[in-house]
Amino acid sequence: MENDNNYQLDAHSQKILDEYRAAKPQCGVAVQKIYTLLKDVLDKAGLVVASIEYRIKTEQSLAGKLELKGHKYKSLADITDIVGLRIITFYMDDVDKVASAVDRLFKIDWANSVDKRRAHEIDSFGYSSLHYICSMEGFPYRFEIQMRTVLQHAWANMNHDTGYKSGVEVPKEYLRSINRLAGLLELADEQFSRIRMDLADYRRRMQALVASGDLDSVLLDAETFRSYLHIRPFDQLTRKIASVNQAEIQEVNLMHFVAVFKEVGCKTLGDINRLVKDNYEAAYQIACYQIGLTDLDIISSSLAPQDLCIAHIIRNGGGKLELRSLLDTMNGESDMNESMAEYLLEQTSDLPFMNQK
Length: 357
Prior knowledge:
This protein is of the alpha/beta class. 56% of the residues lie in helices and 11% in strands. It contains 12 helices and 8 strands. α10 runs antiparallel to α11 (320-331). The longest helix has 41 residues, at 172-212.
């Protein structure tokens, strides 16, 4: 084919461009396959990433490269970024995990791969990504996979726009501000990863305390309550309530009870354990009154913790205001909660537990 009028290419570079045009459909099939393989292996490994991007180099971009340095390449196979993918992670430490997954999937050309994270220049943050040059069976061309964090990706894009894309040299005072911002973003990236590791360590320690039974040492929060639910502390009462009507138990998420138990004064998991023990019988009586004369054959697993908290307030002398506040926390603020609080006080006044204080 004769040289294209739009490009200033010699015969050798034109031959490479013609090869690219012929290979483009095959590259399209390959990049879809690579994307699917990457997504599947990351999903199976439980690695959550922000995105996986992919592209085939445009003809214009390739022609520009060939105009500048086409003599460096013997054929299209020598150009390693005709097909490119980018995996963007949320955390710095996930970049290495993703890299390990990529290494298992593809053959890595280590000689041409680059770990730009090793650079220590003050303005290098946005370019601190890991670049692997890869190959796979059945596809004759190498391809590039870049791995970087969300913040690194954002910075690279911003710096590209402000730094050199306009073709105008950036004054030193602006460069200084840009570099200071790069340092802040790098620090944020490091801190996000550190916080995640600290939280994971906290979670493991709390799970160990729950398993040991030392519940008074475990402060009540979302993470500790989630671990507490694994020992199923409300199951015995729930089954006893269900037996009244031989009802089926519908399991629901009980995590919103963190705020409910805090509302009634629980500060540790030990406090919840004592609340269950002290109010077990009263909660059962309240539940029996609620469902005993009905034909209800399905009950929610939330009924037991709900009635435990109601019983706790009533047994400790709480009135309409305390019950209204509990119901607002449990069900969301509503004027109906006030009438419900009045109803609970009235209907529980004659229950046996009220005479056993």
